[in-house]
Amino acid sequence: MYGNSEPELTNQQKAAILFIVLGPEYSSMLFKHMNDEEIEKLTLEIANHKQVTPEEKKAVVSEFYQMAMAKNYLSQGGLEYAQNILEKALGAERASTIISRLTTSLQVRPFDFLHKTDPAQLLNFIQNEHPQTIALIMAYLDPDQAATILTSLPQERQAEVAKRIAVMDRTSPEVLREVERVLERKLSALVTQDFTDAGGVKAIVEVLNRVDRTTEKSIIENLEVDNPELTEEIKKLMFVFEDIVMLDDRGLQMVLREVDNKDLSLALKATNQEVAEKIYKNMSKRAGDMLREEIEYMGPVKIRDVEEAQQKIVNVIRKLEDKGDIVISRGKGDEMIV
C-alpha cells in the first residue's frame, strides 16, 4: 500500500494522519465520540507525527473512504451485498480485506436480523425455547429489547434466564449457527469464525437497569437464593455513581442528607461535570461553596479512595430505594409516585 521502501502504518498511525488531514474543526467533532483512553493514545500519536507525506495522505484518505463506503453498503444490504459491490469496484482480494477488517472493527454480531424485530413478536418467537437458548439470544440483543422480553417472561423463568446471561462467557460459532438455523432458515451472514464474547454480568446489569422495579426485585431475590455471590456482583453494578443524574431533586436531597461530607468531596474529585452540577444544584450556596473549597484543597487522591467513596454513596441510594424513600427511574414499566 505504501511501497516497498515504506513500513506499513499501524491503525493508530493511520487514525492520527486522518485527524491531521481533517484539521482541528472536524477532528474535534470526532473526539467527542471517543473515550478518554482512546483520545489520550491518539493525541500522543498525532503529537509524534511531525509530518504527513503526500503518499501517506493519499493512501490513508483513500482507505478511509473505502471503509466508509463498505460500511454504508453493509448497512444497506448486508454482507453479501457489500461484498458484491466492493468486488466490482476494487477486485476480489481488496474487497475481502476490507470486509474482514470492517466486520472485526464493527464487532458485527450474530442474530443481527433480530435487532429490528418488535420485542413482542420476538417474545412469541422464543418464549417456548430452552432458558439457555433464550439467554443466548437476549445476550446479543439491544438492552432495551432484552429488557422488554425479560419483563414479559413468566416470573419463574425470569431469574433462570437472567442467571444464564450473567454466567455466560463465550459461545462457539457452531452453537451460534445452530441456534440461528432454528430462528431463521439461512445462516446469518455476519457470524465470524472467531469465538464471540456475549453475556456476562455487565450484560445482565444493562438489561436489569431497564426493567421495572418489580421485575428487577423478583429476579434479584430469586438469584440471591440460588447464587448469592453472583447476585452481589450484579448488585454492585446495578447503580453506579454517575447514575445520580437519574434521581429527581427531592430524592437527591434526601441522599445528600445521609452522606458524609468527606465521602462526597472524595466522590466528586473524579466525576463528570453533569454529575457535579446535579449535586451542587441540590445544595445550598454556602454548602456548595464549602464543598468546592474542600475539593480544591484536597490535593491528589488515589482513584481507589474515590471509588470507595462513590460506592458508599451508591449504598446509601440503594438503602433509601429499598425503603421506598426514593424512586430511581428505570424501565418503561415504572410509574411516578405522587
TrEMBL record:
Pfam families named in the record:
FliG_C (PF01706), FliG_M (PF14841), FliG_N (PF14842)
Major site of localization recorded for this protein: other
Q: Name one GO biological process term.
A: chemotaxis
**Can you give the residue ranges of the Flagellar motor switch protein FliG C-terminal domain?**
221-328
Where the record annotates domain Flagellar motor switch protein FliG middle, the positions are 119-193
| Keywords for the protein's UniProt record, in alphabetical order | Bacterial flagellum, Cell membrane, Cell projection, Chemotaxis, Cilium, Flagellar rotation, Flagellum, Membrane
List where in the cell it is found.
Bacterial flagellum basal body; Cell membrane
Q: Which InterPro entries match?
A: Flg_Motor_Flig, Flg_Motor_Flig_C, FliG_a-hlx, FliG_M, FliG_N
Q: GO molecular function terms here?
A: cytoskeletal motor activity
Family of this protein: Belongs to the FliG family.
Protein name, please?
A: Flagellar motor switch protein FliG
